[in-house]
Amino acid sequence: MLGGTAVHFSLAASFFTEVRPVGPVGDDFGAAEFGVLEGRGVPVDDVERVPGGASFFWRGRYEYDLNVAHTEDTRLGVFADFDPKLSAASQEADVLFLANIQPDLQRRVRGLCGAPRFVALDSMNLWIETARDSLFAAISEVECVILNDAEIRQLTGESNLARAARAVMERGPRAVVAKQGEYGAALFTEGGFFALPGFPLEDVRDPTGAGDSFAGGFLGYIDSHDGEIDEASLRRAMGYGTVLASFNVEDFGTERVARLSREEIDERFADLVAMTRFEPLSAAAE
Amino acid sequence: MLGGTAVHFSLAASFFTEVRPVGPVGDDFGAAEFGVLEGRGVPVDDVERVPGGASFFWRGRYEYDLNVAHTEDTRLGVFADFDPKLSAASQEADVLFLANIQPDLQRRVRGLCGAPRFVALDSMNLWIETARDSLFAAISEVECVILNDAEIRQLTGESNLARAARAVMERGPRAVVAKQGEYGAALFTEGGFFALPGFPLEDVRDPTGAGDSFAGGFLGYIDSHDGEIDEASLRRAMGYGTVLASFNVEDFGTERVARLSREEIDERFADLVAMTRFEPLSAAAE
């Protein structure tokens, strides 16, 4: 199936803002694949075609509850020798997402951009194990870290997630998002804690890309929001991330998000607000 | 450490209502152990002392993230030949919690009670595997099932939790609570879905009994609530369950809950309301 962080992220973010994916693809990424991005109005001029190359490839399997993924095959392909180049339009980005690549490359992309007001970073166990210092250097230059909860524990050596998130924030970021699969996602900031469950679905067909769709909804909303990026707007971003992730898993690959409408997003967002609300009862009413 | 469902549940529920635990203990359950219950005003006249017997015993270890418990030793002790007897006061209970015992015993206790308005049931993998039909019969006689999410999947053979919860409700209960460890708990009802994260704590010392404290806070609140048990009151019950579970894990055994105050509970409940709230932004404000 068509996938990859750039594709899932871009499709999700495209409902909120103009998103410019940067990265290399091989010959196997053809007209049909570009068509999916162009169908959502995503400019693809920063997607670098490498003749004779093969696109990044992942194959894995999921456990019974779809919560745990086991990687069976990863091929870096054209990513192995990637040297990021950004168009002028991309260099002026207001919001930047450094997807999961080698952290020194993330820092280089970060350095190519002018003065984005909000930068978020994703990573994975491979870089935590093999490029820890580089990863911490990259983290110190961003506003927000978006990782799976197990990765936050591994990165910091803290088994307690609240402590682990604080340890990440002590490196610089003002926000840490812990992705938790079907359990949803938690947001740690200096002033608070917020969490949302995964949107309940009776039909989950393919969890692949849910985390990237979450990041796309989260940062797409942030970019579309003109006001200050405060606790309230970060919480709404969590809501949009949750909603986009939930649509992503309803079908294989990019099928569902490619045919999604903004109206469906707003409806589900309203449902999510309603299904997470509870009220203390006044003493009088009790 | 002092523990067991009846102890954790009773202490948690004691902040909301009079709770009367029913069950057998051995000689090892002495004045100090009774003192913990009596210290919270819990009537112990339905706790049956079995001379020469040993109390139910559990020993286990937790994984690194404290989310997964591995049982190392379980001894039924006096529970092996338990024949439940209920005082008149217990038979008139308005709200009943059938803790995790053999499901035919749960049905007998249920039958000994007059006309409780709300009955909840807990169980475990052992009964799902060895007494499935009895368990379904017990489930058909209660309003609410409280289980770990993995148990709900195992019970119904449904890997999707929303479908699994619906399959349980089709047997009779109007509410299914899925306990999810540090991820919190989810409530499924005919009309809706609700979920709360675990209360974020930087110091978790002992997760043992968290699920029982949750059930105690949940049902204690339900019993204290005079109005209809509707969606709003079930959601508040989820909040009190979450709060009591969070205090339980802050110290070993029953230490923390035994010295807890109602004021601390209400403060944390208010914090939980605040930390799960998010608001859509009006189009005008955006």
3D structure, described in words:
2 copies of one chain form a homodimer. In chain A, α4 packs parallel to α6, α7 (149-156) crosses α8 and α10 (231-248) packs across α12 (262-275). A 6-stranded mixed sheet of chain A has the order 5-6-7-8-9-10, sandwiched between helices. A two-stranded parallel sheet of chain A has the order 1-2. In chain A, β5 (95-98), α4 (103-112) and β6 form a beta-alpha-beta unit. The radius of gyration of chain A is 18 Å and the shape is globular. The N and C termini of chain A lie far apart (54 Å). Chain A is α/β, with parallel strands linked by helices and 286 residues long. The longest helix of chain A has 18 residues, at 231-248. The first copy, chain A, is 40% helix and 16% strand. The mean pLDDT of chain A is 92.
Brief synopsis:
Two copies of one chain form a homodimer. The first copy, chain A, has 286 residues and is of the alpha/beta class.
